[in-house]
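DM from R.C. (forwarded with permission)

"hey, sorry to bug you on a friday — could you get me a structure for this? deadline for the figure draft is monday and I only need the backbone to look sensible"
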Amino acid sequence: MNSDDFENQFTTNFKFVPTTDQKSAIHHIARFNCSTKINPLYILKGYAGTGKTSILGAYVKTLSTNFSKTVLLAPTGRAAKVLSSYTSKTAHTIHRYIYFIVTGQNGYPIVKLSKNKLKNTVFIVDEASMISDSNANDEGGFGGHSLLDDLVEYVYSNSGNKLILVGDTAQLPPVGLNLSPALNIEYLKTSFNITAHSFEMKEVMRQSLDSGILFSATSLRIKLKNSDSSLSLIQKSGLKEDVKIIESAYEFEEILQDNFNDSINNNSVLICRTNKRANIFNEQIRNAILLREEEIEAGDRLMIVKNNYYWLDENSKAGFIANGEMIEILRVNKIEEVYGFRFAEADIRLIDYPEEKEITVKLLLDTITAEGPGLNIDQRNNLFEAVLEDYADAPSRGQAVAQVMINPYFNALHIKFAYAMTCHKTQGGQWPTVIIDQGWLNDEMINVEFLRWLYTAFTRSTENLYLINFREDMFE
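My reply, with the result:
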């Protein structure tokens, strides 16, 4: 099929009257789809409300109609679920699709890049703004490679494959970076042997502006584009029924009661700017709304904050428990204090992977109240050295270290409660109800980075948005 025929079929499957930007995206993707150039890569950028999800849905349908092989990927389990919902096709996390785990000689799990057996396949990666080029393990990379390196290597290791990276450049980049490398065409061209093209959708659909959430997000994005962080940031006239400013403690408690009184319900999240604030809100929600009395209880919802390769069988569908994964506590079997840290043994389930059986794990409770994203370097070293002492009788230090690497306490899951979270932790997911806590903010802190944070937080909500602790001069 030539690109004109593909474009016509693509447009028919779109099912809406396309905007000018959507027409351009359809045209460019159709030409890309029929490209015979070496290692073709396409970047589809689009702001909230521009309809890039509708474009993706129609593209996947057109590929399926033509019996083209497609693989849908996203950085997190939650983002993969969102991608599946609007394409009606199973999506996978990047980690689970491109890596596999083997047990090393010392019994410790080793992560390796899988062999790509697919040819002539289109790989579509959503929420690409989250993909890091850092080679640190918790940013996705393994063995000195970044997640971006490994993704590109995996896709093009077989002939005829194409890669589409989809994302929103106004969202937060990966932690520690100023820009999202996977959406930067110049960076990709200089870093990889690819033929790359990109298009950015900027035109917001008229019906999107009927939403106060998207109206406000669009206003923030325009200010971001102009590097204009001058107050005010939010137009009160654009706040429709779906966006409410909460001004009293009574109102706030009522909102929490309405949205968090069922802990298993995963339809709400409170977004704040620091882990310290998230800890305070999580404690308030657990104590005052869920009436939790223990440190951790059955029904609690938690987020994993460090990749873990120990607890799942290497042949399991999930493979490993990734940073950002949501879990639910089914039973707490015991609490124990060893090695100078507090642990729980608990039965859990992976919320975003209902097909996985429940498993019994160790949980590192100290990470729950840590003011950073997890244990700091000194704490990690202290845990390592304390566990290492148990193997002082090993024939060599190397053998002792090997035993530490397969020790269940050393491999305990690092966790945070998942009712209130930082914005980075919510990225890639969407919730019907989102509560945003501005927190303490002086004039110097209202800058382009804050605009990007606020835009990302606004666009996590699909139905209702509540703003708490916002400065009055934020609104006009």
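R.C.: lifesaver. The domain at 3-201 is CATH 3.40.50.300 (Rossmann fold).
me: no worries. Residues 14 and 354 are 31 Å apart (CA to CA).
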